[in-house]
Amino acid sequence: MRCLVTGGAGFLGSHLCERLLNDGHEVLCLDNYFTGRLQNIAHLRDNRNFELIRHDVTEPILLEVDRIFNLACPASPIHYQFNPVKTIKTSVMGAINMLGLAKRVHARILQASTSEVYGDPAVHPQKEDYWGNVNPIGIRSCYDEGKRVAETLFMDYHRQNNVDIRIVRIFNTYGPRMLMNDGRVVSNFIVQALRNEDLTIYGDGTQTRSFCYVDDLIEAFVRMMDQNEIIGPVNVGNPGEFTMLELAQAVLELTGSKSKIVYQPLPGDDPKMRRPDISLAKKALGWEPKVQLRDGLQKTIEYFKTIV
Ligand code: NAD
Ligand code: UDP
Fold first, then answer.
1. Domain count, the chain
2. How far, in Å, from the CA of 66 to the mean position of ligand 2?
3. Which of 10, 233, 301, 305 is deepest in the core (most CB within 10 A)?
4. Full residue range of the structural domain in which residue 155 is found
């Protein structure tokens, strides 16, 4: 099949392009290089089934494809808050443009949605039928609300125009090719530890997240796209839940770093806890994550050692 991956030069997108090529598909990698990098896909460029398109999803584009994976959107708070209006445009106009394309060429289209649609959740762990607790006017809203509208658009194109959609709600995912300066907690802690700099915990470090290794996540994407039973939304993530203090201690131990932990103010609207209920993914996709946090951290540390 000919697969379009928007945001294909980013962290998750580059792993997805690689997987789709390995599975024998043609891949069109579309990116505007806001947070993506040519380096992430440099090793794929000689593959004759791989094609690069420099394009911004806020603009329409005409392509002939069988499948669309819509990943284009900055994912880390510092990047999506850099130009919040652009972030909303990317989620909303990007969804409209890609759904319009899917409708025209009858392609199946998957949306990379997020656990952020649950906001600062009042229900724990989060199940797909929970509607969330999202601040519409805070500093994370450009991302959270943009992704929520994108889900609405996907459902409405499905109901109104019969577009063949899939929605996955991704919980915090980490691994090689995260940007060093991307501000997300796993990359921050690893880079700080490798440089023997202080590890910066925001708040008191009791807030929790559930971290999924990238290979597990890509497997869920592929299974979701390949099956015909459900359109989603489906939670994909690792239900292992850790405080940021536990994460910092694990990184210090695995790197053998001399760094100290320092505490900095908690950013606005930072969710207190997050853990996916993945019973739907287990049942419908036969999927659950296989990589434990310490193993995934070790692989990610090895990657960062080559570039720090
Ligand atoms: P990333 O920032 O590495 O990748 C995003 C990619 O989209 C980059 O290559 C960027 O250049 C590109 N992009 C941004 N705006 C664009 C635009 N207007 N037009 C074209 N390309 C554009 O982040 P990631 O972690 O790989 O995230 C990929 C997707 O998965 C995002 O949609 C994100 O919201 C979603 N997601 C990721 C996580 C996670 O933990 N990694 C969690 C939830 C959801
Ligand atoms: N965080 C932290 N130190 C850092 C970066 C992030 O303590 O250097 C915290 C952040 O406040 C949040 C958690 O780690 O509570 C996860 O942050 P990230 O930006 O990775 O993801 P998100 O908040 O979007 O889930």
1. 1
2. 36
3. 10
4. 2-175+211-238+274-290
- 79 in any annotated domain: yes
Q: What is the pLDDT of residue 42?
A: 97
Specify the pLDDT at position 74: 97
Close Cβ partners of 24 (under 8 Å, ≥ 6 residues apart): none
Q: How far is the CA of 168 from the centre of ligand 2 (A)?
A: 21
List all residues whose CB is within 6 A of at least one atom of ligand 2.
Answer: 76-77, 172, 184-185, 188, 200-202, 207, 209, 244, 266-267, 270
Q: With respect to residue 44, please indicate whether it lies within any of the assigned structural domains.
A: yes
Which CATH number covers residue 112? 3.40.50.720
In angstroms, the CA 148 to CA 134 distance is: 10
Q: Is 189 a domain residue?
A: no
Distance from Cα 59 to the centre of ligand 1, integer Å: 17
Q: Decide: 295 and 182 in contact? Cβ < 8 Å.
A: no
Ligand nearest to the CA of 52: 1
Do the domain assignments include residue 33?
yes
10-residue mean pLDDT profile of the chain (308 residues): values are 98 98 98 97 97 98 98 96 98 98 98 97 96 96 98 98 98 96 95 98 97 98 98 97 98 97 95 96 98 98 96
> Which of 17, 268, 13 is closest to 144 using CA atoms?
268
Is the C-beta atom of 237 inside 6 A of ligand 1? no
Give yes or no: 143 in active site. yes
**Token pair in block for residue 178:** 């995260």
Tens digit of each residue's pLDDT (9 = 90 or more) over 215-270 = 999 999 999 999 999 999 999 999 999 999 999 999 999 999 999 999 999 999 99
Nearest one of 140, 151, 128, 184 to 12, comparing CA atoms: 184
Tell whether pTM > 0.85: yes
Please tell me which residue in 118, 143, 157, 213 is annotated as part of the active site. 143
What spacing in Å lies between the alpha carbon of 102 and ligand 2's midpoint?
A: 34
Structure tokens at 220: 């869920």
